[in-house]
Design goal:
Strand content of chain A: under 5%
Largest sheet of chain B: 6 strands, mixed
Order of helices and strands of chain B: EEEHEEEHHHEHEHEEHHEEEEEEEEEEH
CATH superfamily of the largest domain in chain B: P-loop containing nucleotide triphosphate hydrolases
CATH class of the largest domain in chain B: Alpha Beta
Number of strands of chain B: 20
Largest interface: A-B, 18 and 26 residues
Number of helices of chain A: 13
Number of strands of chain A: 2
Distance between the termini of chain A: 36 Å
Largest sheet of chain A: 2 strands, antiparallel
Shape of chain B: elongated
CATH superfamily of chain A: MetI-like
Number of helices of chain B: 9
Oligomer: heterodimer
Structural class of chain A: mainly alpha
Distance between the termini of chain B: 46 Å
CATH topology of chain A: MetI-like fold
Radius of gyration of chain A: 23 Å
Chain lengths: 288, 370
């Protein structure tokens, strides 16, 4: 009797997440998959086949954009980690009480503003008539206006900026759970700052590092706004290409195939990352 | 360097925090191979003292020498001391072997040599062949021994222990006391042990320093600290004691006549305590110094004998005791030997308490402070 009631409760609680998964994620993907394996022969004339996927591999622009997106995203993830780790370590281990809360909040405050507005902020700083350009000119370091937008560096800056919070938060959480006495024990046993970082802090923070990296990588790979705004027309970001297929070219079939390739790529990179770091998904997500 | 230096010397060690003095002019020596305990209530400054010895905090003033070499300004990773942390601080991301080998790896010892020495030290603490296990696969007592092995493999001059038995259950704690003492004898290393548990300190130590409010109240062997407490704090903190607030009515050499605030008269032979008539004192009397007798007899001459009624019997095996309410209304705790004829003692029985004037300790109330 009791177990029946608790089972009912379990299914009731499960229902929203199941609905969410089925209606908003699984069904659209099945639809997209069906579209992606339909080859267009003529108006309203379709044939099932993997033509859209082969088109991707036969056209260098497509797979090169694809590879470029992946490599840039990995690079952005690495940069975010390198920048985020010291920030997280400082917040988690070297500050106490109020300072900690304030610093943590300061990391979050930029995220109260929409991503679009924040990206425009970067455009104001970096464009030809922008703040940096004017500053360099007034200091006499350059003779004319400098365009700092519309290149890969600008994209990278934008990607790191938009995703660093998602690295810092899981890192602060895992580093917070590292007992200070472990670090002290490391010093006491003759460890140096580097060896303690390598043997004690990083192994402990590994689940946080991995979950932060997964989130940042996914966000970068799927980012549309930042590469388009900061990288311009030629940013060659794969999401931009999907957009073009769907909206400009009205080629939903190829667009859907691209969508699935992106899904496959991100899963593959995450899988490889987990294998390389010796972590499992359940361990990583369970702890952070 | 000669062997005449004690392993650890502290000279007028002071640690000021912004709002209070955590450690106040502490001086002591710990000779090679001895077990030294620092006993005090929480907040007495013993942890700060230990952290200064290990190097995590630097003293405001004073000197700290290990084997005759000053350690002021030497970082913790360069000091010949190792520390067993309160919660042991074993690295959960490493297996036992890597934990124990950590210090050796930092010194750049070769892999094969590390493996050999780790096995050796694990064997010495009675845990051979656990290298490959994870930390969470060991029991509390085993973790304790691994933590000690992790320090001892580095052959430190001094091993510091920060209440490592606090987290264990009672049975295991009793067992580990004996084991720690045996390990100390086995390694013949100087141990400095801090604790708030007097029984740990009394059982294991060669010498005990009793610490209160940043100062050392007394340093001495366990029996000295127990039987000849130097201050009222030591008398009250170490071991059980009946405490009476009293007033001296007359002093005749070292023989004092007192009357407690409850109104009981007593005679005390207080050698060393220079008290005059009219002064207020605190009297400490161990429960085991008091004898229960059924009737007052003539050979009680010179003893303090008073009639009373048993208020309650606290049976605790060999540590059983009774509280007796004496005729003046004061409560006295008396140890109850399990061999005597008092095994059947019950609440409400009339008894006499008897104790020798030399068995009580008394201290000037002004000196005792609170």
């Amino acid at each position: 009797m009791r177990s029946d009631a608790s089972r009912l409760g379990f299914y009731l609680l499960l229902a929203p997440i199941l609905l969410w998964l089925v209606v908003l994620i699984i069904l659209p993907h099945i639809g997209l998959f069906i579209v992606s394996i339909s080859e267009k022969l003529g108006p309203r004339e379709y044939e099932t086949g993997f033509g859209n996927y082969t088109a991707f591999f036969s056209e260098p622009l497509y797979w090169r954009t694809f590879a470029r997106t992946a490599i840039m995203s990995i690079l952005a993830t690495a940069l975010t980690l390198v920048l985020g780790f010291p920030i997280a370590y400082y917040i988690a281990k070297l500050t106490r009480g109020r300072t900690k809360t304030v610093l943590f909040l300061m990391c979050m405050i930029p995220f109260w503003v929409s991503e679009l507005v924040r990206t425009f902020g970067w455009m104001i700083l970096l464009r030809e008539t922008g703040v940096f350009s004017n500053l360099l000119q007034s200091l006499g370091l350059v003779s004319g206006p400098v365009e700092m937008l519309y290149n890969d560096a600008a994209i990278m800056v934008g990607l790191v900026y938009t995703s660093i919070l998602f690295m810092v938060v899981p890192l602060v959480t895992t580093l917070d759970s590292l007992d200070d006495s472990l670090i002290e024990a490391g010093y006491d046993l003759g460890g140096t700052s580097t060896s303690i970082m390598r043997e004690i802090v990083i192994p402990h923070a590994m689940p946080g590092i991995v979950s932060g990296c997964i989130v940042v990588f996914m966000l970068s790979l799927g980012n549309y706004l930042t590469p388009i705004l900061l990288g311009g027309k030629d940013s060659l970001w794969f999401t931009g290409m999907i957009y073009t297929q769907f909206i400009t070219r009205f080629n939903w079939e190829l667009g859907s195939a691209f969508g699935f390739l992106l899904l496959g790529l991100s899963s593959l990179v995450v899988f490889l990352g987990l294998k390389l770091s010796g972590q499992t998904l359940s361990q990583t997500m369970g702890r952070s | 360097m000669t062997d005449s230096h004690p392993d650890l010397e502290c000279r007028d060690l002071v640690k000021d925090f912004s709002d209070f003095k955590a450690v106040d002019r502490v001086s002591f020596d710990v000779p090679q191979g001895s077990f030294f305990s620092i006993l005090g209530p929480s907040g007495c400054g013993k942890t700060t003292l230990l952290r200064m010895i290990s190097g995590f905090q630097s003293p405001t003033s004073g000197d700290l020498r290990i084997k005759g070499k000053s350690m002021i300004g030497v970082p913790p990773n360069k000091r010949p001391v190792s520390m067993v942390f309160q919660h042991l601080a074993l690295f959960p991301t490493m297996n036992i072997g890597d934990n124990v080998g950590f210090g050796l790896r930092q010194r750049g010892v070769g892999k094969a040599e590390i493996k050999k020495r780790v096995e050796e030290v694990l064997e010495r603490v009675g845990l051979p062949g656990v290298s490959a296990r994870r930390v969470d696969q060991l029991s509390g007592g085993q973790k304790q021994r691994v933590a000690i092995a992790r320090c001892m493999v580095l052959e430190p001059d001094v091993l510091l222990l920060d209440e490592p038995l606090g987290a264990l259950d009672l049975k295991l704690r009793e067992h580990m006391k004996v084991e720690l003492k045996a390990l100390q004898a086995e390694f013949n290393t100087t141990f400095v042990y801090i604790t708030h548990d007097q029984s740990e300190a009394l059982v294991m130590s060669d010498n005990i320093a009793v610490m209160n409010k940043g100062r050392f109240e007394q340093i001495g062997a366990p029996h000295e600290v127990y039987h000849e407490p130097a201050t009222a704090f030591v008398a009250g903190f170490v071991g059980d004691a009946n405490k009476f607030d009293a007033k001296v009515t007359s002093a005749n050499g070292s023989m004092l006549s007192l009357v407690t605030d409850a109104g009981t008269e007593m005679k005390i032979n207080a050698a060393g305590a220079s008290l005059n008539a009219g002064e207020r004192t605190q009297v400490f009397l161990r429960p085991e110094a008091i004898e229960l007798v059924a009737t007052a007899t003539t050979n009680d001459e010179g003893c303090n004998v008073s009639p009373g009624v048993v208020e309650s019997v606290l049976f605790n095996g060999a540590n059983s005791s009774v509280t007796v309410r004496n005729s003046a209304g004061g409560l006295v705790k008396v140890a109850l030997p399990q061999t005597g004829g008092f095994a059947a003692l019950q609440k409400g029985d009339a008894v006499f308490t008897r104790w020798q004037p030399k068995d009580a300790r008394c201290f000037s109330a002004a000196e005792a402070g609170s």
